[in-house]
Structures are given as structure tokens and as C-alpha cells.
Amino acid sequence: MLSPVRYLKHPVIKETAWLGLVQGLVIVIGFANSVVLARFLGVQKLGDYQLLLAWLAVASVCGLPGLNMVVLKSTLKDYDRFYWVALRKSLIFSGIGTSIVSALGAVLYLKQGQSELAIFLLLVAASIPLSGFQSYESALVGKRDFRSSRLLALAGSLLSFVLTCIAAVATQEVGLVYGAFLLSRLIVVVAGLLLVRKKLADGEKNSQFESELISQGWRQTALAVFSLLAMRLDRIVLGGMDPVLLSYYHVGTLIPTQVKNNAKIVLGILSSYWGRKNENQNLRALKTHGAKLWLIGLLSVFVMWVGLPILIPLFFGAEYRESVLIGVIYSVGLLSAFWTNMIGMESQLQGDGVFNQRSQIIKYAVFAFCVLTVGRLGICWMAVSNVIAEIFLTLWSYLYLKRKLHMNK
User: Fold this and answer.
1) How far apart are CA 296 and CA 299, in angstroms?
2) What is the rounded CA–CA span in Å between residue 250 and residue 246?
């Protein structure tokens, strides 16, 4: 057994601690950004802005986000040349998506005079080309350059904070705030691409492995089309009902969502080490450390329950008190999120990723069903929909891990 000092010096612990610090800064900056936008845009315009970001996320499927996971897998296995294969495909499809959405916006404006909807579509179209470059982060993590990956994310958060806040304070115009956000993303994408070029080696082509990666990438992309639409469905539905409701929902779920999303990145360090093990070693690690992942989830829920009732009124103002209950309910989904994320990563890095893909389909199918049924009963029921989806994912992951451990005895 490792002594406490040697335990703290272990490379996984050191990297995780450093990365956790950086991610903490990213969360703080993102939170501060949301506070400034909420204060200066107001409830109505904040809802409009969040609806625009929801459709931006859906439109990013044109950049083939499913290839990001296989880029991670290829670089972990030192097959770096696949990054450029994935990048070419992403850029081709993002270009096609931009053309289609732009043409639709132009037709609506010229033929039917729907200027607001046309402008909305053109703003969404402007973001699509950037989605084709997002795999640089997966490549950096695959090369175990966690610090560069997270420093880029930190720089992006700072840049987005500065530019969007300037636009919000100076103009209070949603379109200009959105434009500032896209500019910050463009600068970070260019920096990430330049950095990745220095990290990757050419190597010889492995047609069989490349074919396997492409096949897995297409499946993952098909899943991404469904999951990105499903996971933004709550925001799209609320924004369609009333942007004010979306503002309350966004503020309430902001911190729990940031914790969940950034936890995946921090756990990426652990996944990259486990991904280099064989399947039996990886499964044993999951079994041994599973309780710790659940404990982290429990602590996260406790922190949310204590912190949200204080932080939301303090920073966002009394008009967002309704967001507190939404956040408390939504945060229950954090309980198993760390554990299920690691099981999904095991499926991706040790096998063909079919389990992870199926589990995401189940989760988001349940979530979409709940959003379109119980979610319409009220804004708090929309938060309950997320918890129900996480419960289904947890049960599915437990059955998978139990079967895998039995097969590998």
C-alpha cells in the first residue's frame, strides 16, 4: 500500500489535482460570465441568448462530434495520423451544414420576409465551421498533454468572459454578445490547431485500424446527432414556451451542469491511464475504485444542496430565487455521474464503444420522453426529467459492469 506522501506524488493524483484546480477556475469564470450576462441582459434577453446557444449545440453535429472519441482512442494508441483524417471529414461536413443553414436563412428573408428567424439561422450558421475543429482537445488528451488542453480551455473561458461581458455591458444586444462568444471560440480553435500540429507524428498508415476507427466514429456521430438534440430539448422546449422560463432554468442548472461537464474532463486523466491497461486490469480498477467515484458524487450533491440556496440569490439577484429549487432537484443526477462516466469510457477505450453508445441512446431517449411529457407540467418537472434519465443510465451501467466482471473471472 502506498504511503500518504507517495500517494500524493503518484502521477495520476498529481495530474488530477492540477487539472482539478484549472477546472475550478474554468467553472468560476463561467459562473462569473453568466452572472454578468444575467445582470446586464435581463431575464428576457438572457433566455433569448440561451436559446441561441442551445441551437448552436444542435448545429454542431455538422462537425461530426462523434469523431472526437475515436481521435482520443487513436492518439492513445499512438496512431496520430487519424487526427488529420477526422479533421478533413469534419470540415467537409461542417461546410455543407453551414451552406444549408445559411441558404435556408436567406430564403426565409428574401421570399417570406421573416427577418428575425432569418437572422437567427444565420447566427447559428456562423458557428458551424468552428465545430469542425473541436477534435484538437481529444488529440491533446490522447497524447497525455493535459496541461495544454486545460490551459487552452482556461484561456477560452477568460477570452469569452472578457469579450461577451464587454458586449453585454456596452450594448445589451444578444446578437453582439453571441458574436463576441464566437470570436473567442475562433481564437482558441486556431491556437489549439497550431499546438496539435507540433504534438502529432505522421507514422505509417494502418488501413485496418483506420477502418475500424472510422466505423466507430460514424456510429458515435449518429449517436451524437440524437443525443445533442435530446440533451438540449429541455432548453429548446422552455425557450419556445417562454424565454423567461429558460432563464430561470439556465441559472438553476448552471453550476450542477458545470460540475458534471468538467468532471468528465478531469476524469479523462484517469481514463487515459486506465485506457493503456488491458481489459481485465481496467475492470478490476473500476471494481476497486467504484465506491470512491460514488462518494465524490455524494459530496457533489451535498455541496449543491448547501451552496445553491446561497449562491443564486447572492450573485444573480432575488428575481432568480425560483432557480434554487430547480438546481437542487437537477443536482441529484450528480450522485452516479462520475461512476457511469468511467464505465462508459471503459467501453470506448477497451472495446468498440457499442455499450457506451447504447447507454447514451437509452439515457437521452428516456430524457426526451420525460421532457415532452412530465416536463411540460412545470419547470421543476423539467429538472426531474434529468434525474430520471440518470437513474436509467445507472441501472444499465450496473448490469453491464456485472456481466463484464462475470465474463472476465
Assistant:
1) 5
2) 6
- Residue 326 belongs to a domain: yes
- pTM, two decimal places: 0.77
d(CA 274, CA 270): 6
Question: Last residue of a domain, which of 157, 191, 206?
Answer: 206
**Total structural domains within the chain:** 2
From residue 153, alpha-carbon distances to 114, 185, 189, 277, 335 in Å are: 37, 10, 10, 28, 25
Tell me, yes or no, whether 271 and 360 share the same domain.
Answer: yes
Give the cell for residue 101.
Answer: 443553414
Cα 43 from Cα 317, distance rounded (Å): 11
Contacts of 138 (CB under 8 A, 6+ apart): 68, 69, 71, 72, 75
- Average of pLDDT values for 195-219? 84
56-59-61-62 Cα dihedral, nearest 10 degrees: -130
Domain span at 55: 11-206
In the structure grid, which three cell numbers stand for residue 139, read together?
488529440
* CA–CA dist 48, 286 (Å, integer): 42
194 and 237, same domain (yes or no)? no
In the chain, the largest separation of any two C-alpha atoms, in whole Å, equals: 73
Cα-based distances in Å from 178 to 26, 165, 397? 19, 11, 38
Distance CA 230, CA 351 (A): 25
Rounded Cα distance, 302 and 157, in Å: 26
Tell me, yes or no, whether 305 lies in a domain.
yes
- Position 124, amino acid: V
pLDDT value, residue 284:
74
Q: Which amino acid belongs to residue 25? A: L
Same domain, 261 and 192: no
Residues 6+ apart with CB under 8 A from 343: 286, 397, 400, 401
- pLDDT, residue 7, reads 44
> Mean pLDDT across the stretch 392-403?
86
Q: Tell whether 198 and 257 lie within a shared domain.
A: no
Q: Considering the domain boundaries, does residue 211 fall inside one?
A: no
Predicted local confidence at residue 317, as pLDDT: 87
Confidence band, pLDDT 50/70/90 cuts, at residue 1: very low
Rg for the chain, CA atoms, rounded: 21
**Please, what sign has the CA dihedral across residues 204, 208, 210, 211?**
positive
Residue 349, CA distances (Å) to 69, 70, 121, 268, 272 in order = 9, 9, 37, 11, 9
Half-sphere CA count of 50, side-chain side, radius 13 A: 32
User: Is residue 291 scored above 90 in pLDDT?
Assistant: no
- 238 and 165 belong to one structural domain: no
